[in-house]
Amino acid sequence: MSRRSFLERIAALAGTSIVAPLTQATTTRTIELQRSPLAGFQYHRAEAVWPLLSVGAALDLVREPDNAHDSRAVRVDWQGQKLGYVPRIDNAAVSHLLDGGQAVTARIVALRQSGNPWERVELAVNLSQ
After folding, report:
1. The domain containing residue 120 runs over which residues?
2. CATH number of the domain within which 80 lies
3. Which of 33, 58, 36, 28 has its CA nearest to residue 128?
4. Distance separating the N- and C-terminal Cα atoms of the chain
5. Is residue 69 part of a domain?
6. DSSP 8-state symbol, 38
7. Is the pLDDT of residue 23 over 80?
8. Residue 11 located in a structural domain
9. Among 80, 97, 91, which Cα is nearest to 37's?
10. What would you measure as the largest C-alpha separation in the chain, in angstroms?
11. 3-state secondary structure of 99
């Protein structure tokens, strides 16, 4: 093996060891922060879009700091339709993370036929890192 081919192989190996950690560093990790019922199901569009909802569907979390009822309000939307809110008792951490610009997402984890609107939709709130 010539000196040149030896150095080329070393350079090639060094390049792969540099690329692997960079690839690993760019993968995101999702952590489930909490599960909550959907608050306000009966007051917004949730009933109207109920037949279209599915477990695993992505939800948008929208911060409403000027909400007259709750300064930590976090609205839950599905495809631009307002479904309700993260319950007041569960929204402190979520609102704080959203205010800080963190990547917070939500998904539907359960749908139930129930006369109790608090039992109809359960959502999971996740933090992406």
Report:
1. 30-128
2. 3.30.70.2330
3. 28
4. 46
5. yes
6. P
7. no
8. no
9. 91
10. 79
11. helix
